[in-house]
Amino acid sequence: MAKILPTYLDMSGFLDQKIRIDWSTIEAYRDKIDNPLDVQYVEGIAQQTIGSLDCGLFVYVYVEYLSDGLQVPDDGIDVGLLRKRYDSLL
After folding, report:
1. By its UniProt entry, which PANTHER family does this protein fall under (predicted)?
2. pLDDT tens-digit profile of 65-79?
3. Helix or strand or coil: residue 34?
């Protein structure tokens, strides 16, 4: 999915059809122009195994947990269960 979506967007010309946003003109973003992302380093959270091809799934799970204000579990992420869950939503 991590390769398919960008390839599709590029081949379809989707991004070329969009009007770019000038973030500096939006009040809420003016003070963030120099530092657009606040990065927090957290230790002791679940990580994917070396050689795993589940990068997209891990990113999605982290985004879902953090956007809901939840703590990312430190006892691992059940990749098989999450695949079934997300597949059922499609």
Report:
1. DUF1985 DOMAIN-CONTAINING PROTEIN, UBIQUITIN-LIKE PROTEASE FAMILY PROFILE DOMAIN-CONTAINING PROTEIN
2. 888 888 877 777 777
3. coil
Q: At what angle do helices 55-67 and 79-89 cross, to 10 degrees?
A: 80
Determine the residue type at 29. Y
Nearest of 61, 32, 30, 27 to residue 47 by alpha carbon: 61
Question: Where does residue 61 rank: exposed (0-12), middle (13-18), buried (19+ CB within 10 A)?
Answer: buried
Phi, psi of 51 (to 5 degrees): 85, 0
Strands (E) in the chain, as ranges, are none
Closest CA to 87 of 12, 8, 1: 1
